[in-house]
Design goal:
Largest sheet: none
Number of strands: 0
Organism: Dioscorea alata (Purple yam)
Protein name: UAA transporter protein
Distance between the termini: 87 Å
Shape: globular
Structural class: mainly alpha
Radius of gyration: 24 Å
Length: about 300
């Protein structure tokens, strides 16, 4: 517990410092961009849900098996679609849920059935418990709410990326520090870091990487939406393992190839069906214009 809370607190603190320094590097926009453009409680909502996501994720690792972890990490798209319907009144049809299910199924098959038995996910021996299942459900729910509510803030307010990160990390710092103090873990966490310098440097490195990645995450959510971000986070597991297998010449099982075909086939089909109506709509005025031109020419003749 001390290690996990220390990591979360340091990561929030580093995020706050980096965003603050970025604002200071923009003197002309500094005070304009630092003013909250949304009610503070909405920033706090993102912060609280993000902390609960991290807590559920780390706690669940002690109570669930690898297959359950995999299914949870591959099923991020469906909670985002549900939260999008509730929070942003988006309408998803059965085809959208079907493609989300195919991506989830394909990623799960790819990760759960490796070719080598040495890296089999079933060899860990960790049994899933009811509490672990509830934690993973909480992880999915809070994670989907976080990205969807961030998307809502970006679309509902004229909000810069560093503005949202600044206030959400500030709330996270306050909440994390308050939790350490109330639980009596603050001095223990400081003492642990002083006694284990290697761990401190590792935590700082991981925190810095997580902070920088938060800017890319926020940019993706703001530009493309929460569902696209969930799709990227789901398929990145498959792509990373696929690249690792190619780089280190690890064989792929038949089921892994089937899973990869399902995922990329579903993504390609969804993209094709989305762009096809746009092409038809853009080409129809041209046909109309040609038709009118032909009619006018005939009339002139």
């Amino acid at each position: 517990m001390v290690k996990r809370r220390s990591f979360l607190d340091i990561r929030c603190f580093l995020s706050f410092v980096i965003v603050w320094r970025r604002l200071r590097c923009l003197p002309a926009l500094c005070w304009k961009t630092i003013d909250p453009v949304a009610p503070v409680y909405k920033y706090c909502a993102v912060s609280v849900s993000n902390i609960l996501t991290t807590t559920c994720q780390y706690e669940a690792l002690k109570y669930v098996s690898f297959p359950v972890q995999t299914l949870a990490k591959c099923a991020k798209m469906i909670p985002v679609m549900i939260w999008g319907t509730i929070i942003m009144q988006k309408i998803y049809n059965g085809k959208d849920y079907f493609f989300a299910f195919l991506v989830t199924l394909g990623c799960s098959i790819f990760i759960l059935f490796p070719a080598s038995t040495d890296v089999s996910p079933y060899a860990s021996g960790r049994e899933s418990t009811v509490w672990g299942m509830f934690l993973m459900i909480g992880y999915l729910g809070f994670d989907g709410f976080t990205s969807t509510f961030q998307d809502k803030l970006f679309k509902g307010y004229d909000m810069e990326i560093h503005n949202q990160i600044f206030y959400t990390t500030l709330c996270s710092c306050i909440l994390s520090l308050s939790g350490l103090i109330l639980q009596g873990h603050l001095l223990l966490a400081i003492d642990f870091m002083f006694r284990h310098h290697d761990c401190f440097y590792d935590v700082v490195l991981l925190s810095t990487v997580a902070t920088v990645s938060q800017f890319f995450i926020s940019y993706t959510i703001r530009t493309f939406g929460a569902l696209t971000f969930a799709t990227i986070m789901t398929t990145r597991q498959l792509v990373s393992i696929l690249l690792s297998c190619v780089w280190f010449a690890h064989p792929l099982s038949l089921r892994q190839w089937v899973g990869a075909v399902i995922v990329f086939g579903a993504l390609y089909t969804k993209s094709f069906l989305r762009t096809k109506p746009q092409k038809a709509a853009s080409s129809s005025p041209k046909r109309g214009a040609d038709g009118n031109l032909s009619n006018n020419t005939a009339n002139n003749v």
